[in-house]
Design brief:
mainly beta, seven-stranded antiparallel β-sheet, 68% strand
């Protein structure tokens, strides 16, 4: 539990486990982030809060791709949700910048790996919202 205005570090080991199905891998050793509780109110008898996120993540790809070091994924934004999980209502809005120049390899079964040079830059916003239909 934290008070409004207080921050905490994101557990990157736990966060890395949530990235498994997205086609990217979060490298907890090159990642860091904080959350700050911005506000809490009561909605439908339950605590509803806004949490600000500020993250610098190291991202890579699953095998057969291997990069010399993870790509940089910088994201900031807010998540709004019921703090006790009692309702699925809420939303999220993030601004992100992902990219970098990296060397790596792509493994090939029974053959020598192919060397690659990757240059990537992606900027944008992501948002999601949901409301229970009564």
């Amino acid at each position: 539990p934290v008070k409004v205005g207080e921050s905490w570090d994101i557990n990157m080991e736990a966060a890395a486990k949530s990235f498994g199905d997205d086609g990217v891998i979060l490298d907890p050793d090159s990642s860091e982030g904080t959350c700050t509780l911005k506000s809490v109110e009561t909605k439908d008898g339950a605590p509803f809060g806004t949490v600000a996120l500020d993250m610098d993540l190291g991202m890579s790809f699953p095998p057969p791709v291997s990069l010399e070091k993870p790509l940089s994924f910088r994201a900031t934004g807010e998540v709004r949700s019921f703090m006790d999980g009692s309702h699925p209502d809420g939303g999220m809005k993030m601004t992100f910048n992902m990219g970098g120049q990296r060397k790596g390899t792509v493994a090939q079964k029974g053959k020598k790996p192919v060397e690659i040079e990757l240059e990537m830059e992606s900027k944008g916003t992501m948002s999601r919202s949901g409301k229970t239909v009564k």
